[in-house]
Amino acid sequence: MTSNTISSRKTDHPIDSLFTRRWSPRSFMEKTVPDELLMRLFEAARWAPSAYNHQPWRFIVMRTQEERERIFPCISEFNLAWCKKAPVLVMIISEKNRDGEPNHSHAFDTGAAWSHFALAAVMEGLITHPMTGFDFEQARKILQIPNSYEIQALVAVGYQGSADALPEPLRAREQPNSRRPVEDSIYSGSFGKKFS
Ligand SMILES: Cc1cc2nc3c(=O)[nH]c(=O)nc-3n(C[C@H](O)[C@H](O)[C@H](O)COP(=O)(O)O)c2cc1C
């Protein structure tokens, strides 16, 4: 699906289609992403808010075949089946401490940066697919990630390919999913109190 709207995703309230056009396809074209385009995604991530403006996020970018293949052994069989074609893999990590003290929002802040990244990708005609289906400790060793950083997710970035290019069990799943109703995620005033 490459159209500008996603008809299967109906929103309960009117929002910019940018939010529903971001989804996580698994079919990637074997096409290089120009660095200039890639840098725009990191630029968008850069402007995410963070506690004390500490910017705890870091991104380890794997663009060459050699770089990507180094981490293939730690990726689950299910994920490797589709992500091996992605031209860019990005390991997102977050710095756990700030000034020697635990930074309680490092994951929250890094999640915000990832969200900027993913939405910027949609704006550039790219797709992203985040994964946690890989061996974190093996990845830490391969990428030489210090223990002071937490591994958050591995993200495949590239151009969307045809669903037909996927092996069968994945082909049928290659479509945007939906969400529970918005009211089911929000409470009014205190936990558990229905918002209406
Ligand atoms: C932190 C995180 C980990 C994920 N891990 C995987 C994964 O290992 N394999 C996979 O195929 N999808 C993975 N996903 C994709 C989710 O299944 C997907 O984001 C979710 O179903 C919502 O669909 P959408 O992104 O297409 O809107 C992950 C997503 C997130 C945010």
TrEMBL record:
Biased composition (Basic and acidic residues): 170-183
Cell wall biogenesis/degradation keyword on record: no
Residue span of region Disordered: 167-196
Family to which the UniProt record says this protein belongs: Belongs to the nitroreductase family.
Residues annotated as domain Nitroreductase: 21-159
Record CDD domains: TdsD-like (cd02138)
UniProt organism field: Insulibacter thermoxylanivorax
Name this polypeptide is given: Nitroreductase
GO terms of molecular function: oxidoreductase activity
InterPro entries hit by this protein: Nitroreductase (IPR029479), Nitroreductase-like (IPR000415)
SUPFAM superfamilies attached to this UniProt entry: FMN-dependent nitroreductase-like
First and last residue of the signal peptide: none
Alphabetized UniProt keyword annotations: Oxidoreductase
A Pfam short name: Nitroreductase
